[in-house]
Amino acid sequence: MEFSMKSLFEYTDKLNKPYECFFLDVKKEWLPVQPHWHYFMEILYVTRGTALMYQNEQSHIVTEGDLIVFLPSVVHSVHAVSDAPLQYYVLKFDLGQLDSSTSFTGGNWNFSALFGNAINNEHADIYFPEEMLRSLPIQSLFDDCVREMQNMQYGYQMILQSKIRELLTWLLRIWRDDGFDTDCSFTPLAKENTIYTITEYIDRHACENIRVEDIAALCHMSYSHFAKNFREIYGQSCKKYIEFIRLCKVEDMLLFTNFDLNYISQETGYADCSHLIRSFKEKYGISPHQYRRQHSISGQDH
Predict the structure, then answer these.
(1) Measured CA distances, 95 to 20, 72, 134 (Å)
(2) Which of 68, 118, 88 has the alpha carbon at shortest distance from 21?
(3) Which pLDDT band holds residue 184 (cuts at 50, 70, 90)?
(4) Which residues contact 282 (CB under 8 A, 6 or more apart)?
């Protein structure tokens, strides 16, 4: 089955934090989760019931005790196979937040490169059946992650990062035993920017003063050719995409920090506070202050 990557990109399914973990008691009407893709990585661990899960052309019947990995930028979906209850943990995270280079870890652990190389790799099966994981405390790890997310005590993101690295290392060991090449974990990959990967660059640099013509040059394309191709692939102009990423970051800072608008505008690439307010109102229909009052976890206006 062929998919249009433009139409399947899930704009609303974004990370509100670098790491997210939660438990889902799936209602029948929630399924199917239609084919979609996003830039972050997603791992599901089933604790009850059975589901049919797709990633690209691969399909797996995933049942209690099984784990499945949805790699970044890869189309995936979830379908019910019966009326029986379905429960699973969901772990979402940006692989780039996990990459490190220290003498303590013994080299450069480039998780982005490792799991990027896993796409369509015959030695990196995304499906991990229960019998393969039996010796590992998988559910305990997910329970710990959910508890840290719920309590949000001091240092919880560091603990989540540690737990996710531990889980990914377990999975890499399984792949390595099956012949997967993990040497790239110690050799940073110099990936050339293309029209298909440039959004990763934009996501990381949207808060800077980046221009579309400079981004086109990174892809070795003229401005007009780049603009035309970007719109065809992603369904919007590159300028609009940059604005979208910036506003997502503004939204996150409004919800999860106490910073004022002057600081937020500086941190999200806006020339000044007035530009931020105008752009925010155009998208959300209300001011940033109103949005914070209505949606902030604390429910307070900061």
Answers:
(1) 12, 9, 25
(2) 88
(3) low
(4) none
Residue pair 88/44 in contact (Cβ under 8 Å)? The answer is: yes
Burial class (CB within 10 angstroms; exposed 0-12, middle 13-18, buried 19+) of 152:
exposed
Its pTM stands at: 0.63
Say if residue 122 is exposed, middle or buried (CB neighbours under 10 Å; 0-12, 13-18, 19+): exposed
pLDDT score at 42: 95
33-36 and 100-102 as β-strands: parallel, antiparallel, unpaired? unpaired
Domains along the sequence of the chain with CATH: 5-186 (2.60.120.10), 198-295 (1.10.10.60)
pLDDT at 11 over 70: no
Residue 40 has pLDDT above 90, yes or no: no
Contact 213, 176 (CB under 8 A): no
Mean pLDDT, residues 274-289: 93
Task: Give the tokens for residue 179.
Answer: 């012949």
Residue 171: per-residue pLDDT:
97
CB 42 within 8 A of CB 13: no
Backbone angles phi, psi at 234, to 5 degrees: -110, -5
